[in-house]
Prior knowledge:
This protein is mainly alpha-helical and about 160 residues long. It has helices spanning about 1-5, 25-30, 35-55, 60-70, 110-125, 140-150; strands spanning about 15, 55-60, 90, 100. Strands 1-2 form a two-stranded parallel ribbon. Strands 3-4 form a two-stranded antiparallel ribbon. Helix 4 crosses helix 6 (about 140-150) and helix 5 crosses helix 6. The longest helix has 19 residues, at about 35-55. It is globular and about 60 Å long. The relative contact order is 0.14.
Amino acid sequence: IRRIRELAPQAEIVVQETWSYTPWDGRLKKWGIDQNEMYAKLHRAYGDYASSHGYRVIPTGTAVQLWRSRLPVAYAENSFGGDVCGSAKFVKDKNGKWTPKGDVFHFNADGHYLQALVWCAKLFGVDVTKCPYAPKGLDAAKAELMMAAVNGESK
């Protein structure tokens, strides 16, 4: 941060709040928490850090949580259930249990769009509900729900 202040004193430093993982991520069990508790802890930690330094927070994790609750995301035995995280393929193990193979915590294509909406709204003050763009393959109703999640609204 000292170097940023030295080289670009006019720059605003912002903190991006990250998101909680999908329930498919084994680290949640290892840590003894669920997805909602992970979000609550992240939200508090990012808020405390930003507040103590006078930074703004880009609330990406909050938008993800709103998306999950308002869609609602419905995780199934072999599915991310509409979550914006996870792009793993599900395969059956030798016992016939579905197991994800691949990424279960980074954004998928829908998550990238949601994150872009959050950044536009919070960094540039853009009203994303008026955004005419949605990626190919993302239906208009889903894009509208994402825009509402960015604004903290229910649809």
